[in-house]
Amino acid sequence: MPIKNILNNKSILITGGTGSFGKKFIEKTLADFKPNKLIVYSRDELKQYELQKIWPEKMSSPMRYFIGDIRDLPRLKMAMSDVDIVIHAAALKQVPTAEYNPFEAVKTNIIGSQNIIDAAFEKGVTQVIALSTDKAAAPINLYGATKLTSDKLFIAGNNYKGSNDIKLSVVRYGNVMGSRGSVIPFFIEKINDGVFPITDERMTRFNITLDEGVNFVMKCF
Q1: Sign of the dihedral through C-alpha 25, 31, 33, 38
Q2: End-to-end CA distance of the chain
Q3: Looking at the chain, which terminus has fewer C-beta neighbours within 10 angstroms, N or C?
Q4: Is the pLDDT of residue 152 over 90?
């Protein structure tokens, strides 16, 4: 099916849909496709309120908003009723936060991912794409390790889907330039200091624009 038609007449749920990726994905989807429903699933009511001012929830719009946490399996199942496609973007993503709150990262990034898989199986979802990170490649911190575990859960899910007509996939890309919480705004702040902080001279950072990230995911459908 041509990419120009791939999301037409589909019901799509985005976990962590109020983040930088979710906002850009909504913008592009509403501009280029005609989905039946586009459901934002997240636990931040303020960010959902701000999104609703841009894309209100009304009868003439496909937009829907669900307050919920991916740690909450029953709520996920409710949100996935009659959903065709799930994009899993929710995660605890800050490296220091994960180091100092390790089991919180495990509960969201690993247990939450398993909840996505279980809910998708039960509710008849046909496609799940999970967003990963370059930090999951040979991880040296807990965030990367939890995302690697999540990646393996999604890929392995294809082995035990049974009679479910579902495809589980993972996309992995690098630092999204300028997204909320990325390192680039921090670097920009340091321009006036005259010192550019580097953790390790051997470090390689992989960068991608927000548009490139969203287009990459859409091609992966």
Answers
A1: positive
A2: 10
A3: N
A4: yes
